[in-house]
Each structure stands twice: as C-alpha cells, then as structure tokens.
Amino acid sequence: MIKVKDLHKQFGFKHVLCGINFEVRDGETLAIIGSSGTGKSILLKNIVGLIKPTSGAVYIDGVNVTNCSAEELMNTHKKTGYVFQESALFDSMTIFENVAFGLKMLTKYNEEEISQRVSQCLKMVGLKNVERLKPSELSGGMKKRAALARAIAYQPKYIFYDEPTTGLDPIMSDAISDLIINLRENLKVTSIVVTHDMKSAYKIADRIIMLYKGEVVFEGTPQETKKTKNPVVRQFVEGSSHGPIQTERNFEMDGL
Ligand SMILES: Nc1ncnc2c1ncn2[C@@H]1O[C@H](COP(=O)(O)OP(=O)(O)OP(=O)(O)O)[C@@H](O)[C@H]1O
Fold first, then answer.
1. How many structural domains are present in the chain?
2. Is the residue at 133 inside a domain?
3. Residue 147: which domain range?
4. pTM
5. Residues enclosing ligand 1, CB less than 6 A?
6. Does residue 222 fall inside a structural domain?
7. Per-residue pLDDT tens digits for 124-180
8. How many CB atoms lie within 10 A of CB 91?
9. Measured between alpha carbons, how far is 140 from 118 in angstroms, rounded to an integer?
10. What positions does the domain ABC transporter occupy (predicted)?
11. Nearest CA to ligand 1 atom 7
C-alpha cells in the first residue's frame, strides 16, 4: 500500500505541492489528473524518491521513502517500476540491453534467465524482433511499450507511469491503456498513473484524484468524476479554456 501524508514541495518561494494526502490500496490503479504545471510529475518523483519533499512523508509498504536508510530505499526500488514521460530509454543501448538493465542491477538472474525474461516482457507488451534495435529506430508507441517492458522486467509490485499515452495516436493510446489494465490483472500490480488523457483515465483507473494549485481538489471513481459538479474538475475533463483554471490563453484574452 502507498500512503502520501501531508506532502509539501517548495522550490525557493514557489510552493508546488501544498499538503498532499492520499492512499493507494494494493491492486488498485490511481490516476492523477491536473493541468500542466500543477505538480503531477513532481508528486510522482517524490513518491519514487527521485526528489526529496520539503516536508511530509510517503510510505510504501510501511517504509517512509522520504526518510529511510539507503538499504531500505534500495529494497523499495526493487519493488517499483517507473515509466518516464519521454520513455527515457538509454539511447546508446539496444532494446534488449534497456529491458535487461534493471534485471542486471536488481536481481541475481544469470545470462540465460535474463535473456528469457527480456523476451517474455517484450512479448507481454506486444513487441517482436526489436531486441537488437536502438531506441531511435522505434516509433513513439514502440518506445513507450519498450519502457513498459523495462519497468515490469523485475516483477515490481508497484508501477508508476508519467503520462504513458502522451504523444501517441488514439489507437496506440488505447492499446497502452489496455496494456496497463492487463498488467494490473495479470501481474496484480498497484499503479499510479499521471495523465492528461481523460479517455485513458476513465478506462484504467479505479480512482481519480485531481491536483489544482498544489492541492488535491477532488477524489472519486471514474463515474463520480464524470458526474461531479466541481467546477475545476468540470473545466478540466471538458477541456474548456473558460472556468476557474487560468491558462495562458485566458491571460492573453484578458489583455485584448
Ligand atoms: N527543479 C525545479 N525548480 C523549480 N521549479 C520546478 C522544478 N521542477 C519543477 N518545477 C516547477 O514545478 C511545477 C510543477 O511541475 P511538474 O513538472 O510537476 O508539472 P506537471 O503537472 O507534471 O505538468 P505537465 O502536465 O505539463 O507535465 C512547475 O511550475 C515547474 O516549473
């Protein structure tokens, strides 16, 4: 289980996260939505321990990852997979080497076991004959799937996705959503998915939370999200430039 408790993150005078609280139960997929710059990626990076919060705590299986020993943090990292916004594959490595990377670092598998596991994971995400290719030879959707294969290779209990469908065509986006659902059902993983893509959020999430001005302003099931009258959520899910959420376009229009 993941528990985020009164999490604050400040860069100088800028308060990005202002007291975030939520829980993700085992086996659940939580989607975090919110407009650009509201701190979704910063929140995810705090949860996986890539950056330290200003205050507050993140518990993963009872371990406070913001304040634990290096050994406890390493043990927690072995349980978590991270799919970065831009896939973040290592450009100089082949797809095989990319997927094998975590297995070499975090497991005691021998060469043959690594090879079998890499093939199994690439098959799971629907990629064929790509082992010897470099990331630059793959399309955006294939890169996302390769990044997913890398994240699931060492069988993590938790997977964190940062905008897994951004930049993909609608069909590929839907295929990635299906893949996230399959991973939850087949591997029983617990996931947090940061996304702008409401079609995907409605499809994959058990619960949705919305960040606004550094706070959680809404929490509910996809059905509740569709029905809510919360004006911030309504504006976001309807993709309207009119409403409480200020956008660059609002500012430009105000000046006319
Ligand atoms: N290292 C940093 N120093 C100062 N400010 C930062 C730093 N990293 C992020 N920020 C600021 O934190 C805010 C939240 O950024 P974040 O990347 O989490 O937004 P986001 O909600 O994920 O946006 P998007 O949906 O566009 O990816 C932004 O205003 C950003 O400028």
1. 1
2. yes
3. 91-153
4. 0.90
5. 11, 14, 16, 34, 36-42
6. no
7. 888 889 999 999 999 888 898 899 889 888 889 999 999 988 878 888 889 889 989
8. 9
9. 20
10. 2-238
11. 11
Q: How far is CA 195 from the centre of its chain?
A: 8
Determine the distance separating the centroid of ligand 1 and the alpha carbon of 39, expressed in angstroms. Answer: 5
**Residue 253 in domain:** no
> In ligand 1, which atom is closest to the CA atom of 211?
21
User: CA-to-CA distance for 217 and 228, rounded, in angstroms?
Assistant: 12
Does residue 143 sit within a domain? yes
